[in-house]
Design a protein that fits this description.
about 550 residues, alpha/beta, three-stranded antiparallel β-sheet
Length: about 550
């Protein structure tokens, strides 16, 4: 019933890769953990390419780049000794960024030389311990050139290049000008980068690939072309980790890029078009959502239509619900759930009644939970009672109940916990406890809920224990502080300590809300109705005025010249 949304392929490939990177050889100390995790993450993507094709590989790095570039204030390099606990190192740096370092290294060396380097690195250090310099030495030796700067800027220093790129065309000289400026804040942790930016010019002449090897704060690059290009594609294969602002790229180029043969180019275009809200863009995205040959582009088109967030983009999503690929169907449902609108609500209710895929039902439940309608309570209670893989439906129902912000849901959630405590997913158990604490925060008497939550702060499952502590923080009951302090005063090496500290801080900082959430949300829907009614009246008045002016101009006597 989960169709193709859930798979263990990536997990299995990642763990199999550890037989070489982690078992055959392993990092000498925790600071070089990327030599285990970055490799395992990268080789899982290589396996996806082998199994599903190159488009899947590119999509993997499209998503990986989004995960990394979403962290804007990173000043920590991949290799660092600044940590209190080894667990502090197990974040996106050794995994996602580590895999991207290998992607860039492979792109620079070429697949065959890269493979030779890695094979030599493994054989030379098998059954031993390694540091990053061991890999660096092999690459230098076999490539015949120094990769010291490559490893220095990407592994031993932090961040990534933030590029502003501008394009212009000189018709007389037939030259395309690409201006590149590095905008990242430079300091001891973040360097000025030296790296190649791959560019593909497309047009009547076909495809011409060029490289702008930047190394300065600002540089201009000139490329001779037969004619002005139809589109300019930057980094379409994601061979470079960089945040690129292509500020002056016209809509016509982006729309052409959305039809390009390169999946990376289409993914980029589908993402960048979120800043355009015109009808042509919405129509192009709807076409991509329903016609593109790769599911990832269709998923991104749905997300961008949600980001545009107009009446037209909602209509495009509502008209695109019939998707054979469950991954795309889930993206469309999630995008519709991102609108607070009567049509979105009606679509959500239909999805809950007709959809069979439990993950998609969960996405729909998130949307309807925002509305305070008479039949929502019964719908959410039915979902709470529904069995599903990993409790995904019940978990979504609980989160929707939290969005309802109605204390009436406290009792059914507590009953749900009691009936399923032995076989409930830890994540869902913790979410249920936190929701109970949140929904009871404004109750006059919170004693019963407090005692219920305190009954779980010594749970054998760490996730449930931490969920109970967070729930007590959400409950905002000062009487829970004494119990929480027994954990807050413990050693910082145990996980509950910082969670207990935060819960105490939340309780002490609590302020009673003054706004009625239900009334606010209902008011928004009423305003939307009034706005649509006024817009209709204005349109009718404009049409009458135009008709009157047209009639007057036709009957008025003509002036003599």
């Amino acid at each position: 019933e989960t169709e193709n949304i859930r798979t263990s392929e990536g997990l299995v490939a990642h763990e199999l890769a550890h037989q070489w990177f982690g078992d055959l050889l392993t990092c000498r100390d925790w600071s070089h953990i990327w030599l285990n995790e970055g490799f395992a993450t990268f080789y899982a993507l290589l396996y996806a390419e082998h199994l599903h094709g190159h488009d899947d590989y590119v999509y993997g790095f499209f998503n990986t780049s989004h995960a990394i570039l979403g962290v804007t204030n990173d000043t920590m390099p991949i290799v660092t000794r600044k940590f209190d606990n080894p667990d502090d190192l197990f974040n996106y740096l050794p995994y996602e960024k580590g895999s991207f370092v290998l992607q860039m290294l492979r792109a620079d060396l070429g697949p065959e030389l890269y493979r030779t380097c890695i094979h030599t690195y493994l054989k030379r250090h098998e059954f031993g311990n390694v540091i990053t310099e061991d890999l660096n030495k092999v690459v230098n030796e076999l490539s015949g050139k120094s990769y010291d700067r490559f490893f220095d800027q990407w592994v031993y220093h932090a961040h990534y290049p933030e590029l502003s790129v501008e394009y212009s065309w000189d018709e007389k000289s037939k030259l395309a000008k690409i201006s590149v400026k590095q905008n990242q804040k430079l300091n001891d942790d973040v360097l000025l980068f030296e790296a190649p930016l791959n560019i593909v010019f497309t047009g009547p002449f076909g495809r011409i690939e060029k490289t702008a090897a930047f190394s300065k704060v600002e540089e201009d690059f000139f490329f001779a072309l037969p004619k002005a290009p139809t589109s300019v594609l930057l980094n379409p294969e994601f061979d470079l980790l960089a945040k690129i602002d292509f500020a002056n790229q016209p809509s016509s180029m982006l729309l052409a890029q959305l039809e390009d043969k390169s999946v990376g180019a289409r993914l980029q275009a589908a993402d960048l078009l979120k800043d355009k809200k015109d009808r042509a863009t919405v129509d192009a995205l709807k076409r991509a959502l329903n016609k593109d040959t790769f599911y990832g582009v269709r998923v991104q088109a749905a997300r961008t239509l949600q980001a545009i967030h107009s009446d037209e983009s909602l209509e495009a999503l509502l008209g695109s619900l019939q998707q054979s690929d469950a991954r795309v169907r889930q993206a469309v449902v999630a995008a519709i759930a991102g609108f607070y609108n009567e049509k979105a609500f009606e679509a959500g209710r239909t999805i809950l009644s007709k959809e069979k895929n439990v993950d998609i039902i969960a996405s729909g439940a998130q949307g309807v939970g925002l509305y305070h309608k008479p039949d929502i309570r019964d719908a959410l209670l039915q979902l709470l009672a529904r069995e599903s893989f990993h409790d995904v439906v019940a978990d979504a129902a609980i989160r929707a109940m939290r969005a309802q912000d109605d204390p009436a849901y406290i009792t059914p959630i507590r009953e749900f916990i009691g009936n399923h405590s032995t076989n409930l997913q830890t994540r869902t158990f913790a979410s249920a406890l936190e929701t109970v604490g949140y929904l009871a925060r404004n109750e006059t008497n919170r004693d019963d809920v407090r005692e219920f939550l305190l009954g779980h702060i010594n749970d054998k499952k760490k996730g449930v224990q931490l969920g109970a502590m967070r729930a007590l923080g959400l409950l905002e009951d000062p009487k829970a502080i004494a119990a929480l302090e027994t954990f807050a005063n413990a050693s910082r090496e145990i996980d509950p300590q910082p969670v207990a500290e935060k819960a105490i801080a939340d309780i002490r900082a609590a302020r009673r809300p003054t706004d009625n959430l239900k009334e606010l949300r209902s008011g928004i829907l009423d305003l939307q109705k009034e706005s649509r009614s006024l817009r209709k009246e204005l349109d009718e008045m404009q049409k009458k005025t135009n008709a009157t002016r047209k009639s007057q101009s036709q009957t008025a006597p003509k002036r003599k010249s």
